[in-house]
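[agent] plan:
  1. take the single chain provided in the ticket
  2. run structure prediction with default settings
  3. attach structure tokens to the ticket
  4. add a short note for the reviewer (M.T.)
[agent] executing step 1
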Amino acid sequence: MAVNVIMLGPPGAGKGTQGERFAAGHRIPRIATGDMLRDEMHRGTALGSDVKAVMDRGELVSDEVMINIVTERLSLPDVANGFVLDGFPRTVGQAQALDAWMIGRDPLIVLDIVVPEAELVRRLGARMICAACGHNADGRETTPGVCHICGGKLIQRADDNAMVVLERFKVYQNATKPLVDFYKTRPTFRSINGAQSLDRVAADLTEAVEAISNSASAAAKVASGGGTR
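[agent] step 2 finished; step 3 output follows
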């Protein structure tokens, strides 16, 4: 069964770090829409210019643009064994579009990383990103201010300054948090305590995915007539 994971949570919850670790451990692609959009900006495309203005204000890129970008990416063959989505969906409209795309495929596993707001503000104020490759600094840097992946300079993200952080929280509360209500009644939904150590959060994520996958496999076997009576 393919492992199809959505990482939910507010800015600073650790979706990027945990998604990266989980995807690498399961040898599936991490599809980070923020990275995809920043790549468009670095390449100076027309889309990148429009996206930069929106992201620098802490606002969300339109549903239409995001749905087109993600569905095109999900059509590539490397997602056959699953994927980790980080940054999509961010609205109920995007979630509905993803549900339509997933018809006939293995189920979505939805993981909501929960962190107290005060801790999120602290994290965002200290968060750094590589100016060269876009990697989020995750504590593995051996040289201060230098990316351990490519050696590039670590800088604060433009959308992590104080005013933009407040706007991003407002956007999350208004547009993205309703996704929890959209997904939380599904048997493939789990809330994860993101205020723990990185290793503990990673372990909890893995345990949740394994439990959901086992339940889904058992249910599919029964539905196909292969279960015991």
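[agent] step 4 note for reviewer: Residues 198-223 form the longest helix (26 residues).
[agent] ticket updated
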